[in-house]
Write a structure and sequence with these properties.
The chain has 249 residues and is mainly α. The chain has 11 helices and 2 strands; from the N terminus they run αααααααααααββ. A two-stranded antiparallel ribbon has the order 1-2. Pfam families: BACK.
Length: 249
């Protein structure tokens, strides 16, 4: 016996109406019941309803940035990140990044979704410093996120930052008043890692701002409390060992 007691009443009612009419009734999908409707439809393997839900989502995320951020949270919670619909939502989020990154609700997006967005080669940014500001803002939103500092900061391609921007990066850590020292330590560890200076050299990514050795820097100076670290690149940059490119459909 299926137990729907933990689901939204309106979501269950909509499901029953849809099933009673054999799918002929237009499902009344709204933001408030979207998550439960999606989960129930997947549980019952109702492909026709899932198709309608996916159509509703893709149209809505294109038209409404607030709904887009809400959907990023939903697909993360329901492990829909790698579905066809999930990948399309991320493509839209990457394109609308200049808008959604400034929204307060973006700081509520789960870690998995944040990492997938910030690590995309085709991320729509004016400069790499957009990623810096977004990463620090997301980490500072909740104290417990300090534990995710390395994972989030490693999305920053420090080779694309100007010297003054690298200095400003560490200045931003002061926004975490109670965790500034810990954050600085994480930042030092992250950017002292060879992988921090990765450069994507895929030919098809040449048009992306984040890809290619555009700066031509051979030396990096990073200021952290009580120390100065100089990195010298002696070998040509190589592509990271993990995915930095746009996922294939």
């Amino acid at each position: 016996m299926l137990d729907f007691s933990n689901y939204d009443v309106i979501a269950v009612s909509t499901l029953i109406d849809y099933m009673a009419t054999g799918g002929r009734t237009k499902a009344r999908i709204t933001n408030s019941i979207l998550g439960d409707m999606t989960e129930i439809a997947r549980l019952l393997e109702m492909e026709s309803l899932l198709t309608k839900i996916n159509e509703f989502i893709l149209i809505s995320v294109t038209q409404n940035e607030q709904f887009l951020v809400h959907t990023l949270t939903m697909i993360s919670m329901q492990i829909l990140l790698d579905t066809s619909m999930g990948k399309k939502v991320f493509d839209i989020a990457v394109n609308k990044f200049p808008i959604i990154r400034k929204m307060a609700s973006f700081n509520e997006v789960p870690l998995d979704a944040i990492l997938r967005i910030l690590d995309r080669c085709d991320l729509n940014i004016s400069s790499e410093y957009d990623v810096v500001e977004t990463a620090i803002s997301w980490l500072a939103a909740k104290p417990e996120r300090i534990h995710f500092s390395y994972l989030v900061l490693r999305c920053i391609r420090i080779a694309n930052l100007a010297p003054d921007q690298r200095t400003d990066l560490f200045a931003l850590t002061s926004s975490m008043s109670n965790y500034a020292q810990i954050m600085s330590a994480f930042a030092h560890y992250t950017f002292n890692n060879t992988n921090a200076h990765r450069v994507c050299v895929l030919a098809e990514h040449n048009s992306y701002k984040r890809c290619g050795n555009r700066s031509g820097h051979t030396q990096f100076v990073i200021n952290v409390p009580s120390r100065k670290i100089v990195y010298r690149r002696k070998a040509p940059p190589i592509k990271a060992s993990y995915v930095t490119a746009k996922p294939s459909n």
